[in-house]
Specification:
- The complex is a heterodimer.
- By secondary structure, chain A is mainly alpha-helical.
- Chain A has a single domain (2-281), classed as MetI-like fold, CATH 1.10.3720.10.
- Chain A is 73% helix and 1% strand.
- Chain A is globular, with a radius of gyration of 23 Å.
- The two termini of chain A are 35 Å apart.
- Chain B has one domain: MetI-like fold (Orthogonal Bundle).
- Helices cover 75% and strands 0% of the residues of chain B.
- Chain B starts with 5 loop residues before the first helix and ends with a helix.
- Classes of the chains: A mainly alpha, B mainly alpha.
- At the A-B interface, α1, α3, α4, α5 and α7 of A face α1, α4, α5, α6 and α7 of B.
Chain lengths: 282, 270
């Protein structure tokens, strides 16, 4: 008990409070002689005034709003398939887990190769041998975010599928049997029994995926480095650059507090929207 | 609910999950000319050249060894500390048991960026940047929430009577834990260990900021920072990626059932 608490305090609780504190200070690693100076809300005001930061916030929100529903929807479809009994189900479940198990930087390099502008599979599937038409999705501000979304959906849909699968496994077979006796069709059973019963699992899938998508970093780091023209500069990458590349500790901390509250906001929103309905259904 | 199309769905899901990565694995054993060929060539020439140059020129084995050391020690320490915590949480009735579990859950949802800076400075003060113990300490605290959650769901399912009998027979608490509870909870420990190992093996963000010296970098960092300005060494990257992923794919294929159970234990029962 105590050792675990010690680790958590030193490496999680103290840091989060330290981030809160430093977000009100001016501290620049490259100019150490300035020391730490209390500046109140200045870092946050600077952040609001910075068009790059505002754009980064918008990019992150768009990323979350596109990828998470897709992942939950596809995850639901996969979960419905791998919940049915059939020969080789264990193997398919293991195969579905593969994208989840692959290190994210490996998945990133893999998609970078697929999206290559001269010999990537993406271009070959679109244009075949007509190499003069080949696109460079990762170098195009209009397409780069889309490419990262594709890679993210591929990598993380299995996780959503597993959460929903666990929900499906908890639905007792008797209910379906009773519904069959009463003459319910497949769609009715899905609509009236499955969906309401797995609503908590779907809520959890949304929650976990959203919080994870808000902190997307690895894919951006490898695929685009936030570019081209900041089109994929999500908040976690923006904050990383502020804190670690530019040494702007105060400003970086303000970004990290912002990401923290954004995650909290989404969490509360989901629990309110979906959670209330879940409670009513009980 | 099964229709005619059901087998088709199985094939589609399996192909979409596996083929992109299989393509990368095939790339690692192709010849240099095959990699850039249009139309793409599916059958590789089965060259081992890229593996050789990944090892000799890019230090693949060093990254591999670092990953094994870091992920291995993270797993051992997290499970040892996590088991103690989970045992205490499920066996003693603290008023704050639920609060502690909720705290762990909340911590596991922190965006990395919101703790990364201070963690970096703490490790820097301790002189632990670019050390195995530095990255391991950070990873242990990152994986403890997962470990404690999974272990406490497993410990809860063990009947208390067996332990009680051991305690009456004169075992101390720690003896009861090590001689009775742990052997019974072995499947749970193993499940938690697999998940913590995969997590530590794949982690990138903290490795990137804490390990700036390439002598200590783990595979994910090595793969992300693969040198290449104009022509990417795709063959070598694919070779290193295959090496980094192989242990995980083997683990997944072998322990699919445990992984699914562990992930859903952490998620749904909360």
């Amino acid at each position: 008990m105590f050792p675990s608490f010690l680790f958590i305090v030193i490496f999680s609780l103290v840091p989060i409070f330290e981030s809160f504190r430093l977000s009100f200070y001016r501290m620049i690693l490259t100019l150490p002689w300035l020391g730490q100076k209390f500046v109140g809300w200045q870092n946050y005001l600077d952040l609001l005034a910075d068009p790059v930061a505002r754009h980064s916030l918008a990019t992150t929100v768009i990323f979350v709003c596109v990828t998470v529903p897709l992942e939950v929807l596809l995850g639901l479809a996969i979960a419905l398939v791998i919940n049915e009994p059939f020969r080789g189900r264990g193997l398919l479940r293991a195969v579905v887990l593969v994208p989840w198990a692959i290190p994210s930087t490996v998945a990133s390099q893999m998609w970078r190769f697929i999206f290559n502008d001269r010999y990537g599979l993406f271009n070959y599937f679109l244009f075949g041998d007509r190499t003069e038409l080949y696109l460079a999705p990762l170098a195009d501000p209009q397409m780069a975010l889309g490419a990262i979304m594709v890679a993210d959906v591929w990598k993380t849909t299995p996780f959503a599928a597993l959460i929903i699968l666990a929900g499906l496994q908890a639905v007792p077979d008797e209910i379906y049997e009773a519904a069959s006796v009463d003459g319910a069709g497949a769609w009715q059973k899905f609509r009236r029994i499955t969906l309401p019963m797995i609503q908590p699992a779907i809520l959890l899938a949304f929650l976990f995926r959203t919080i994870d998508a808000l902190r997307v970093f690895d894919l951006v780091f490898v695929l685009t480095q936030g570019g081209p023209a900041d089109s994929t500069n999500v908040l976690q990458f923006y904050g990383y650059k502020k804190s670690f590349a530019e040494g702007m500790v105060g400003a970086g901390s303000a970004v990290s507090v912002l990401v923290f509250f954004l995650a909290l906001l989404f969490a509360l929103l989901y629990i309110r929207v979906l959670g209330v309905r879940v409670l009513k259904a009980r | 609910m099964k229709s005619y199309f059901f087998p088709l769905w199985i094939v589609v899901i399996g192909a979409l999950s596996l083929l992109p990565f299989l393509w990368f694995v095939l790339t690692s054993v192709k010849s240099a000319a095959q990699i850039t060929a249009i139309p793409p060539q599916i059958m590789p020439a089965f060259h081992a050249d890229f593996y050789r140059s990944a090892v000799s020129e890019h230090g693949l084995f060093r990254y591999l060894a670092n990953s094994v050391i870091v992920a291995g020690s993270t797993t051992l320490i997290s499970i040892a500390i996590g088991a103690l915590a989970a045992y205490a949480l499920t066996r003693f009735r603290f008023s704050w048991t639920r609060f502690y579990l909720m705290l762990l859950l909340a911590i596991s949802m922190f965006p990395q960026i919101s703790i990364a800076g201070p963690v970096w400075r703490i490790l820097s003060h301790m002189g632990w940047l670019n050390t195995y113990q530095g990255i391991t300490a950070a990873y242990v605290s990152l994986s403890l929430p997962l470990a404690v959650w999974i272990l406490s769901t497993f410990f809860k399912e063990l009947p208390y009577e067996i332990e009680e009998a051991a305690l009456i027979d004169g075992c101390s608490r720690l003896q009861a834990l090590s001689k009775v509870v742990l052997p019974l909870a072995a499947p749970g420990l193993f499940t938690a260990a697999i998940l913590v190992f995969i997590h530590a093996w794949n982690e990138f963000f903290f490795a990137l900021i804490i390990l700036t010296n390439s002598n200590f970098q783990t595979l994910p960092v090595g793969i992300a920072l693969f040198p290449g300005e104009y022509t990417m060494p795709w063959g070598e990257i694919a070779a290193a990626s295959t090496m980094a992923t192989l242990p995980l794919v083997v683990l997944t294929l072998l322990f699919q059932r445990r992984i699914i159970r562990g992930l859903s234990a952490g998620a749904v029962k909360g």
